[in-house]
Every structure is written in C-alpha cells, then in structure tokens.
What we know:
Layout: H1 2-27, E1 28-31, E2 35-41, E3 44-49, E4 53-56, E5 62-68, E6 72-82, E7 88-99, H2 102-109, H3 113-133, H4 137-142, H5 145-160, E8 165-176, H6 182-248, H7 252-271, H8 286-292
Antiparallel strand pairs: 1-4, 2-3, 2-5, 6-7, 7-8
Amino acid sequence: MKKNKSLTLLIVIAVLVLLASSVVSSVFYTVKPNEYAVVRQFGKIVSINDTPGLKIKIPVIQTVEKISKEIILYDIPESDVITKDKKSMVVDSYVLWHVTDSSAYIRSLNAVRGRAEERIDAAVYNAIKNTISSMNQEEVIAARGDVLTSKITAEAGSEITAYGIEIVTAQIKTLSLPSDNQNAVYERMISERQNIAAGYIASGNAEAQKIKNETDKQVELMLAEANKEAAIKIAEGEEEYMKILKDAYNSEEKAAFYEYIRGLDALRVSLTGSGKKTIILDKDNELVKILTGQE
C-alpha cells in the first residue's frame, strides 16, 4: 500500500513538473545574439525582438519564429554571359548575404531561405550580365576584381533590398572563356601584345636614331669649332714666328748670329749617330773657319 502511494506521488510530481515546464516555455522565450525573434498573434506579426535575453509572450495565443542574423554563403552556379563585343564568357561566383529586415523577409518570402537564394541568384546574374555586357572582352579580362565586385554588388543589392535582404558582397570566383574558343582568344591576345611590343620597339629605335643624329650633329659642330680655334692658334703662332724671324733679321749682326746658331744646330744634327760622318762645307763657310781655327 505504501509503495502504491509513493508511486502515485512520483507520478503527480512528474506531471506537475511537465506542466510547469510547459507553462514556462509557453510564457518565456530567449533571443540569441545571432537571431531575430518574430512574435505572431493569430498569424499576424506583433513584435520583433533582436536584443539578446529572456522575453515574455502570451501563452497559446502568441507564437515565436526565429530567423538567423548570420551572414550566409551562397555559391551561385556557373553561367554564360556575353561581352559588349559579342564574346562569350563563363562566370562562376558566390554571394555573402544576410537578413536585415525580418518583417519584410517574412512578408515577401515567408522566411524561406530557398526562395531568398532564388531571388539572389536572379539579381546577381542580372548584375553580372549588365556589367559584363557593357565592357569588351579585353576590358573584362584586364579589369581588377574589386572593380567588378563593387559594380555587381551595388546593382544586385539595390534589386534585392525589398526582400529584407542585404548582399554583403557578390564576388566572381573565376571568369573564363568557353573551352571551344580559349586557344583562339589567347593566340589573338598574344599576337596583339606582340604587335604592341613591336610598336614600342620601333618607336624606341626611331627616338634612339633621332638622338644619335642630334648627337652626331653636335659633335660635328664641336669639331668644326675646335678646328677653327686650332687654325686661329696656328695662324697666331705662325704670325708670332714670322715676327720673331723679322726681329732676328732686322740688323746685320743679328742675322749673322742667327745664321751662326742655325749652322751649329745643323752641324750637331749631322754628327749625331754612330759611324763615320763626312761633312762637305764651302771654304768660306763660317763653320769651316770655326773648325779650322781661322779668324
């Protein structure tokens, strides 16, 4: 009998605990830092709580729906786009997005992530198509990644904001050519780069020749000027030499002395060197007088 009473008491306590737990869960709910808590009353949204903590709701009448605030990665399937010059390119991209307006998110998409990503897919594809189609293929290839990213993110974001969603970034992972025309495009690009390089080389050679011609001209002018100066110096030297000669011969005594010195110099040169030397002089030559001791 006592055992039956104890068992009954345990069952009653368990039921009371369950009822209390049910009552507490129907009255209180918690909001985490990374989520929105949307409170509905008979299906209508009456409040949205996004501050963390313990909250109160009316039991039975009100229900709570949780929506994540976290940034979500969505990998968009590859797609083909056409450039301004009618060239096909393959784009592989991804998007980082999150919910910013839970009310609009619920109202427009019923808070279904799959529906949200369908809208994001369409918006990003349109933005990529519009951006790529406004540029030639070479401009697309040469463009920096952040330039394309900013354009695509801004356009797609403006289209998707009505759904209570923000696109943090829409990034292109790879931007490639269709396999059937990659080689042809690469060869054409190589040929164009080679033509550009040849143009630079030709321009450089022309400039080098221009500089060389100008330098040669300057050298010729400098040589001509130097030759002119040299001719002037030679003429001045000859003039000075003639003046010295004139001064040397302006009297009979100076002329005789000059002839005497020149004779000695000539004799010295003639006697320089090895071997026997023979000098033939006129008997009246002053050197003969000097060598024979005549006066």
